[in-house]
Amino acid sequence: MRPGVIVGVLSLVAFAALGVVVRDDPSGLDTWLGTALHGDWRGPAGGVAEVVSAILGPVIPVLFALGLVVAAVAAWRRGDRQRATLMLRVLVLLGLCRATSWLAKPLFERERPRVYPDFAYPSGHVVSVASAGFAAVVLCAWLAPHLVRTMTWIVAAATVVCAASRVVLDVHWLTDTVGAVLAVTGVGLLAGAALRLLPAQRPGVASST
């Protein structure tokens, strides 16, 4: 079994276990942060977090998906079927990663720190950013391997900033954001292997067949 598949399975197991543990009553770091930040979402910090959440959230994977579709169509029209197929496979990967929050929220039914629509676990915003980021890293691994490390750092930073904004806004517990990263990592690695996206083949798209 490939290491990536093993890590993917372990990530999903950890995601499910964490969800079961935290689904009822918050405790530990969740409670401490909730108490420390209580009411801050009404102040300047909350205003900044609101802007961050508007930028780093569900809109990111939607825009990325549109970009992948446009790139796939353009490649197909040029006769580059391999690149077009790659774009579509990454699109499927993105969709599967993003679906984790839609599918998991009703399973765990965790309440938010304050009254807010929908369930808490995992954070949909963090899932959105992490999903787009995971797909972007995979795409870089195929088309621009020299950018993988830089893209990974960008994705990690964006995910942390997004997670922090949701906690500051008091609409998610910290463990909701951790669960989001675990879910995307697990689904991303397993789906990536199934779609023959991981490990990336080099050189370029030509070796995908």
From TrEMBL:
Protein name: Phosphatase PAP2 family protein
Keyword field: Membrane, Transmembrane, Transmembrane helix
Protein source organism: Prauserella oleivorans
Any Pfam family hit: PAP2
Membrane among keywords: yes
Residue ranges of domain Phosphatidic acid phosphatase type 2/haloperoxidase in the record: 85-192
Transmembrane segments: 51-74, 86-104, 124-144, 151-168, 180-198
